[in-house]
Amino acid sequence: MGRISHAIRFGALRFFCLAFSLVAVLYVNPTAFAQNAVSVVSDARVAGDMARTRFILDMDGEVGYGLSFLSRPYRLVIDLPSVAFKFPGDFVPKGRGLVKSWRYGSISKGRSRVVLDLNAPVTLDKTFLLPGVQGQPTRLVIDLTESSPEEFEEAVGKAIAQTLPVGATGSVPQGQGVEAQAGPAQSNLPVIVIDPGHGGVDSGAVGSNGTLEKAIVLNFGRFLKEKLDKLGYYEVYLTRDDDRFLSLGKRTKLARGKGADLFISIHADSITNGAETTRGASIYTLSEKASDRMAAALARRENYSDVIGGVDFSDEPEEVTDILVELTRRETKNFSIHFARLVVEELKSATTVIKNPLRAAGFQVLKSHDVPSVLIELGFLSNNLDEKMLGSDEWRERVSDAIVQATNSFFRAKIAQQ
Asked: Where is the MurNAc-LAA domain (predicted)?
């Protein structure tokens, strides 16, 4: 575990000489699919009504797939090996009948996912692959019929249908993020984990000109890591270094597994009301009581990421609570607020910040009880000026420098000992 994490824990022990087990983090370990060749999904459509609905994917070859139902809200998850979604330029996913809406994307290296949001509880009538013949694409067909809530709940968590991937291999290619780097950090340097938000099937906010939050924050996260690496003061890791989905619980688990001394989650906001005038960066720390309405609304949207990604919460452990953990949380919160204040002061001279830029809300991704954690909103993709600015190399240089300066101030004592 990292140096600051140790300091927090030992500080609590000085007041209470207790040896309790610390809280378990939320973790979802989905079944992996892998395939040697990447298949191309070229089209998709929904047909039918509220009694019976058919979902069809057109592909250039047969692939293995798995289906599962998730509740609260009702969803059908289609897991695929690695595929390339290459829809026509004007393609927009549209729902119909029992399918309210749907989305698609990478879930991890070697795996893709389609998530159907359902208007009502359903049952799987049948599913099959139609081989491509006479110039027609291979088609994955899924037929759904209306059912009762009780029948739907019985199916939740079960593998409804699954076929073996054609040409499957026994392993999933590994990425370059923390997920691919097992075990804690090996040096005595402070450990920083940078968490580019969203990814894969979860695009996050979308700007008025089509800018995707998941792409903006990944680029910024890589750039910030590179700058911190060059200093030689820290060990720096990314939770993701490609376009993959990670559950919120896995992000915090990865940081704690590295013994992180600091966790920085990177995002870009979007709002509807006041989009033309609301712009600028902000930084959030954890609080069960949101500092304002905007903070509360943002936390709700960000905490919805797992639902977007089709994460099953049924096996999540309940959080352990005791006096030692509560003391640790308080100390961690103080470290988090201290770092957040340093960032705000640096950002004020580097970019536009919103009114009252230091805020708090109940972000799931900030809930590591012993790792100082903040969430930085780089700007508002819903604002045309901010959207343009977030793609600027000059802006990225200034803002990353500001965060680096704040980080150096936060770890000044530790750096002086090196």
From this structure: 252-408
200 dihedral zone (left: phi>0; alpha: psi -120 to 50; beta): left
Sign of the dihedral defined by the CA atoms of residues 198, 202, 204, 210, in that order: positive
pLDDT tens figures, 108-163: 778 899 999 999 999 999 988 888 877 889 999 999 999 999 999 988 877 665 55
Separation CA 264–CA 374 (nearest Å): 5
- Position 7 scores a pLDDT of 52
Q: How many domains does the chain have?
A: 2
Closest CA to 77 of 313, 244, 310: 310
Share of residues in the chain with pLDDT > 70 (%): 80
Token representation of residue 224: 């910030």
CA distances from 47 to 54, 56, 95, 264, 333 (A): 5, 8, 9, 43, 50
Tokens standing for residue 145: 């019929």
> In terms of Cα–Cα distance, which of 265, 266, 295, 278 is closest to 380?
278
Same domain, 341 and 403: yes
Last residue of a domain, one of 118, 133, 162: 162
- Structure tokens that stand for 366 in this block: 């900030």
End-to-end CA distance of the chain: 19
Residue 169 in domain: no
Residues paired with 191 in a beta bridge: 235
pLDDT tens for residues 232-251? Answer: 999 999 999 999 999 998 99
- Detail the DSSP E strand segments found in 82-121: 83-85, 99-108, 111-118
- Yes or no: say if 278 and 383 are a contact pair by the CB < 8 Å rule: yes
- Separation of CA 263 from chain center: 14
Pair of tokens at residue 62: 């047969």
| Percent helix, strand and coil across the chain, each to the nearest 5 | 30, 30, 40
**Smallest Cα–Cα separation from 217: which of 227, 201, 228, 205?**
205
**Residue ending a domain, choose from 162, 186, 206:** 162
